[in-house]
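Continuing the batch. This is chain 6 of the set; chains 1 through 5 are on the previous pages. Same settings as before, nothing changed between runs. Recording input and output for traceability.
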Amino acid sequence: MEKQSTILFLTGILKTNIMKITYFKDTETLLVKFNNNEITETKDINENVLVETDKNGNVVNITIEHAKKQTEITSFSFNQVESPMTI
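Output for chain 6:
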């Protein structure tokens, strides 16, 4: 059986120029991928949230299990805020 998922790409906000958010409907899992760095450590924030980091401690992925209960995944939005102009 093929996994059902929804993928959203956000560009221009990170050094790697891509952030990928994937929601797996069948398992209600939300995966937020910030970069493609090699994962060296996984930290359990609680029983439903994992944070994976690289060798420098930078966040690579955040995984949220049972995302519908943990987040407002059905009303996701993205806003990029420009730096204020200085006079």
